[in-house]
Amino acid sequence: MKKLSVKARHSILSIVLPIIAILAFLGVWQGASQQIQTNIGNLPGPVEVLNAFKGLMSEFSNQREAAKTFYANLPEGSTAIFSAPPTFIDQILTSLKTVLTACLISSMIAIPVGLLCGLSPNFYRALNPLIQIFKPISPLAWLPIVYWWPLYMSTQSKGYQNHLSFLPSLLPCAPSGLPSLTLWWAWGKLAKIL
Over the Cα atoms of the chain, what is R_g? Predict the structure, then answer.
C-alpha cells in the first residue's frame, strides 16, 4: 500500500480532526448535562437543545403560515395588519437590524472624526483628551446607558435603540484610523521629497 502524500494526509486530518473534536465536545456536554442540576432541572444536553430549536423553528413557520392565511382571507382594500408575539427568529432579526444600524451610525460619525483628527493636528489636540478618557471604557460598559436612557426619553420612538446603541462602537472607531492616516500622510510627504 502506497503511503499517502503529505498534502493528502493534511487534507484528511483537516476534515477528520474537527469532526472528532465536535463529537468529543457533544459527548462531554451530554455527560455533563446529566450531572449539573439547576433550579429548573438538569442542564439541557445537545439532544434537548436540538429539539427546542426544532420547536422554535416550527413556531416561526406556523406563524408565517398564519400570517399568509390572514392576508389571503382579508377583504380587498382592507388595511388590517397581522399581529402576533415575536418569534425567536423575529427577535434575532430585530437584534441584528439594531446592531447593524448602530454600527452604520457610529461609522458615519466616527470615520469622518477620525479622518479630521488625522488631517488636522489642532482638531486632534482638541479631541484627544475626550478620546483618551472614553477609549479605555469597554463597549459593554456603555450598555447600561443604552438601556437606562429610555427611562428619560419617550420610548414611543422605535429608533431610540439605534440612536443609543451606536455609543459602544463610536468611540473605539474614531481614533482607530489615526495610525493608518498618519502613515499614509508620511508616505505622501516621502513621495513628494523623492
Answer: 27
Query: Which CA distances in Å does 48 have to 8, 105, 147?
Result: 38, 39, 32
Dig out the grid coordinates for 47 from the structure: 439532544
Cα separation, 150 vs 19, in Å, equals 46
- Nearest one of 52, 139, 48 to 102, comparing CA atoms: 139
DSSP E strands, 11-134: 37-38, 41-42
CA atoms within 13 A on the CB side of 129: 3
Smallest Cα–Cα separation from 102: which of 54, 163, 179, 43? Answer: 163
| Residue 32 C-beta-side C-alpha neighbours within 13 Å | 7
Per-residue pLDDT of the chain (194 residues; tens, 9 = 90+): 456 688 888 888 899 999 999 999 999 999 998 888 888 888 899 999 999 999 999 999 999 999 999 988 888 888 888 888 889 988 899 888 887 887 788 788 888 888 888 788 898 889 888 878 877 777 677 666 666 665 555 554 555 555 555 556 565 555 555 555 555 555 555 556 55
Q: Nearest-CA neighbor of 110 among 160, 188, 168?
A: 168
Beta-bridge mates of residue 38: 41
Q: What is the pTM of this model?
A: 0.58
**At residue 41, what are phi and psi to the nearest 5 degrees?**
125, -160
DSSP state, residue 138: -
